[in-house]
Design a protein that fits this description.
The protein has helices at about 10-15, 25-35, 35-40, 45-60, 65-80, 90-105, 110-120, 125-140, 140-170, 175-224. By secondary structure, the chain is mainly alpha-helical. The chain has two domains: about 10-140, Serine Threonine Protein Phosphatase 5, Tetratricopeptide repeat; about 140-224. Helix 2 crosses helix 4, helix 7 (about 110-120) runs antiparallel to helix 8 (about 125-140) and helix 9 runs antiparallel to helix 10. It is elongated.
Length: about 220
């Protein structure tokens, strides 16, 4: 469905178009103050104002409210088969921002689900692929949680050894100072290895998982 077919526009739409497109808070206030009236307009006017409102919610960081309204916009795109402008894909743009709002709300599982939808639509969407990797890196598996817990324990143990070294060993048992120093350095080093190693291994697994998944989807697309 192509938009903006009519040459006549209602007064409320003309008032809306006078607002600077970057004045997101004013757009939000305008839409919310007149929402019932706006919903009764011709679809072309209503839809343009809805999209501006949804995008404004995202731009100002109202992510929870954005998640409520972006589904409305997505549904309108599907039901009315709204055509995108050349070089744009409105449906994919709305999905991408929906994923971003889930991410900002720490809803990583939902973000992952939406990004998978995007990549199945376009497995060459590099932004979605990169975002999926970022999302998966935030979804820490059990082994990484254990690696972090181990590192924290070892750092605390190293701090305890330092305290014993300063308060007891060096004043009274200087002959054992070298052994204690090597011990706490070793403990601290193992803690660092546990933390850094866990993070690097998790990052590597995410890269491999996403690349394999993308290649599989691309091959499936080619067979269709």
């Amino acid at each position: 469905m192509a938009l903006y077919q009519s040459t006549y526009h209602s007064k409320i739409f003309r008032d809306f178009k006078e607002i600077d497109a970057a004045n997101y808070r004013r757009i939000i206030h305008f839409y919310e103050a007149r929402e019932d009236t706006i919903r009764g307009l011709d679809f072309e006017e209503y839809f343009e104002m809805l999209i501006a409102y949804v995008n404004s919610l995202f731009e100002v960081g109202f992510h929870q409210k954005h998640l409520l309204m972006v589904d409305v916009a997505i549904e309108e795109v599907i039901v009315h088969n709204v055509e995108s402008l050349p070089g744009e894909n409105l449906y994919e743009q709305l999905l991408f921002r929906k994923a971003a709002s889930h991410f900002q709300c720490l809803q990583y599982e939902k973000c992952h689900y939406v990004l998978m939808q995007l990549i199945r639509i376009d497995p060459y969407n590099t932004d979605a692929i990169s975002f999926l990797k970022k999302c998966l890196r935030r979804m820490e598996p059990v082994f990484l949680e254990r690696a972090k817990a181990t590192a924290i324990f070892l750092f605390l143990l190293a701090a305890l050894v330092i305290a014993i070294e300063v308060l007891l060993v060096r004043p009274f048992y200087e002959m054992h100072a070298d052994l204690i120093e090597r011990s706490r350095n070793t403990i601290f080093g193992i803690g660092c290895l546990s933390l850094v190693g866990g993070l690097l291994w998790h990052r590597y697994r995410v890269e491999q998982r996403v690349e394999q998944m993308v290649q599989l989807i691309r091959r499936e697309k080619q067979l269709l």
